[in-house]
Amino acid sequence: MGDSTASTAQETFGEKNAKHFDKVAPGEWPRWIVDLQQQIVDFLVSPDFPSWAGLDVNAQAQAQGSKGRMLDYACGDGLLSKALKPLYASVIGVDVSGAMLDKYRATASGLGLTDEEMMGVRGDFITGASQATEPPLPEEALSDFDMVAMSMALHHVEDAAATMRELVSRLKVGGKILIVDWAPLDGSTAAQREYQEELRKDNKEAIVKERLAVHAARHTVGKPEGFTEAEQKLLFEQAGCKGFAWKLADKLSYVELVDAKGQLYWALATKA
Fold first, then answer.
1. DSSP classification of residue 256
2. Which of 45, 77, 203, 219 could bridge to 103 as Cys pair (CB 3.0-4.6 Å)?
3. Where are the membrane-spanning stretches (predicted)?
4. Which domains does the chain have, with CATH numbers?
5. Distance from C-alpha of 182 to C-alpha of 261, rounded to nearest angstrom
6. Contacts 24+ apart (CB under 8 A), 162-166
């Protein structure tokens, strides 16, 4: 997805991602993306998620008189916002791609939500570009969140540690940060080992490795192998978080872009 030849060395990762996702966002998602999104959401809307995330939803609502505020960074079409909105009074989605934000706003409209309940704005908090959003929001509207969430985007940034610090800085003390992304295919789980054995039997290991190195969106990716549990925990800790939680997907996910499989993870921590 995307044309790496269209990118230049002068472009920031944010600009590369904006150009790429402006190109691929319009229209219906292909089946493999729909399936991947469903796999992500199934855990987030399950009865297990609030306790895994340390969210005492009833106590939180009673104490605050509301259900708090959430930031969905690199929000895409609003997958996380839609899944987690029942836990929060309002959600702000931020993305570098205008085309993705069109989908985000369509998601909000489909849910019958007002801008006060679910708003999408264009912005880049990560790559050193101006932090002014389109439409412009005051800084106080973009800080002191109860939850900051980011799905399938951490591997798209150039500096994961700086990204984590920026996102955590927008949380209130005691707020939660949720990351959904890829774990490396390093044979550390039974599902991965079974898949690696399949590739060996079919003599496809080298082919898959090559696809991962040269696929059409590779120029938008900072860490194509994803993040180990230890790496994600360290990123949280270095950003000033505690209380690490980690969950791997039970099944591998098919990625048509590279005709290969990957393993999702959900990770969460609390701002100290």
1. T
2. 77
3. none
4. 4-271 (3.40.50.150)
5. 10
6. 162/126, 163/126, 164/235, 164/236, 164/238, 164/239, 165/238, 165/239, 165/240, 166/125, 166/126
